[in-house]
Design a protein that fits this description.
Layout: H1 6-33, H2 38-125, H3 131-237, H4 248-285
Helix pairs in contact: 1-2, 3-4
Length: 286
């Protein structure tokens, strides 16, 4: 639908009002001829002119409103037309795309029609009764193959991860073995040093053993002498002292007591003998 421009619409309304204004002016002239006085006619003309001016202004406002509404309507019509044209263009494009897609599908159907014949032959020579069963079986096998590949991939990843762990473990154990070897070398060095230090200690140990043997022999001789003295003392005392044969320490104590007693007795005898001698010498002098 064609729309009228702003300038054309304004010109239309101006022409329309001018024609009406001329008709009103003619009517005013006819009215003036019947007027009673020039002054009254003049006042009446001024009044009519003011009314006409006011009517023209009101009419101009209405015309402006109508013009604005007409412009809005024309704009809306233009927008709807553009929208419809855009939708029509989009529909044409979609239709063209669908046609292309349909043609491609037709080409695929034509291209794969040989497989339908192949599937029909498969159904004839197999246990399947329909083509759909063959397709389902194929999809099942494809899914199983996919699961198998995923499982194989999972095992492969686990194997690679296990290999990484094994390499890490091997590296750690090799480091530990190297550390143990170093410690073993240090221990061997210490052992060799200890072996070199053993010879002097063995010599000293042999000397100590020889010394101990000599001391043991001397100790045995001393014990035998103590035992002999103890037995002689027992014979002199004519008493059984009940002292174990191997208790040399107690035997020696008793021997010391016996000697002390003998010493005391000897001292006492000597003291009495001295007194007796002194007493015996007094009469002789008188």
């Amino acid at each position: 639908m064609a729309t009228m421009g702003d300038e054309d619409l304004s010109a239309y309304f101006r022409m329309h009002y001018r024609q009406n204004l001329l008709a009103l002016l003619r009517k005013f002239r006819l009215t003036e001829e019947h007027s009673l006085s020039p002054f009254t006619r003049l006042q009446e003309k001024k009044k009519q002119a003011r009314l006409m001016q006011k009517a023209l202004e009101v009419k101009e406002e209405e015309n402006d409103k109508m013009r604005i509404q007409a412009l809005k309507k024309a704009t809306n019509e233009r927008e709807r037309k553009m929208q419809k044209e855009s939708e029509l263009l989009r529909a044409k494009r979609n239709l063209e795309a669908l046609k292309i897609k349909h043609q491609k599908l037709c080409n695929k159907v034509q291209k794969y029609s040989i497989f339908n014949k192949y599937l029909e032959d498969v159904v004839k020579i197999s246990q399947f009764e329909e083509i759909q069963e063959v397709i389902w079986r194929y999809k099942t096998l494809v899914r199983m193959h996919k699961d198998l590949l995923q499982s194989r991939q999972g095992h492969k990843e686990m194997s690679e991860q296990a290999k990484v762990f094994l390499d890490q473990y091997t590296a750690e154990k090799e480091a530990e073995i190297l550390q143990y070897k170093n410690e073993l070398v240090q221990l061997q060095q210490r052992f060799d040093k200890a072996q070199s230090d053993i010879l002097p200690w063995e010599a000293r140990w042999a000397d100590m053993q020889n010394t101990n043997a000599e001391k043991t022999l001397k100790l045995g001789t001393i014990k035998m002498a103590i035992l002999n003295l103890f037995q002689c003392m027992s014979v002199q005392l004519k008493a059984n002292l009940n002292v174990p044969v191997d208790d040399s320490h107690r035997q020696l104590n008793m021997i010391q007591l016996f000697i002390q007693d003998l010493t005391d007795i000897s001292m006492e005898v000597k003291h009495k003998d001295t007194k007796n001698r002194q007493r015996a010498s007094i009469p002789t002098e008188l």
